[in-house]
Amino acid sequence: MRVARFSHVGETAYGIVELAEDHGEHPETIAVVSGDPLAGPIHYTGERVLLAEVRLLAPVLPRSKVVGIGKNYADHAAEMGSAIPAEPLTFLKPNTSVIGPGEAIVKPIECQRLDYEGELAVIIGRICRRVPAARAAEVIFGYTVGNDVTARDLQDKDGQWTRGKGYDTFTVLGPWMVTHLGLEEAGDLLITTTVDGEVKQKESTALMLNPIPRLIEFVSSFTTLLPGDVILTGTPAGIGPMEPGAEVSVSVAEIGTLTNPVIAEE
Fold this sequence. Notes:
CATH architecture of the largest domain: Alpha-Beta Complex
Number of helices: 6
Oligomer: single chain
Order of helices and strands: EEHEEEEHEEEEEEEHHEHEEHEEEE
Largest sheet: 12 strands, mixed
CATH topology of the largest domain: Fumarylacetoacetate hydrolase, domain 2
Radius of gyration: 18 Å
């Protein structure tokens, strides 16, 4: 299933996305459900709305945290001039940094270089701690597309990553959550990032140094994960700047495309 969080006629709701590729010639719609799928059972309300008439929102608002993974692709570590980490390199992003499809990424006044980082995002579906890699699938609700926006100059200046990755609008998620992918499928998906239509990143999640089960095992070893928490699994090589006025898109095969404009802070 593709589970979307959306706004329509002033109301926010969840629904199941029904694309043309799933239903032939029928219009693309969202079947509205009651409740929060990350909090408990959902039920179809019987209402359907046209996908073109809703505003898609960030599909998940993390209950407590977004956990980022740094340098999880060898070629990205190389382009950063860094050695490959001996174990997953983690950082936290505030949930106030989350925005959804179509919302503006804001370049802060303190930032000289604002970078895109296209990634696969894992959404946790249950409270868990110390999850063995072999049982990682049991705690995953689904997957979405992520853009781990980074103020690169501030990241370098500070020597740690909280400010450079923590500004409002710096965690972009969407367009929806996909729940039907297994771990094996999620472990080999093509990530493509474009800026104004020009391809900047193109690499498979199969090249992650630490695959998804290892990441869940490692992250849950030091923090309790809650339903709705997000793990950003790292970005491949090809990072670079995006300027106000640009449009950046991140696509992950089998999930969808996340597109946002970039503006300057006023």
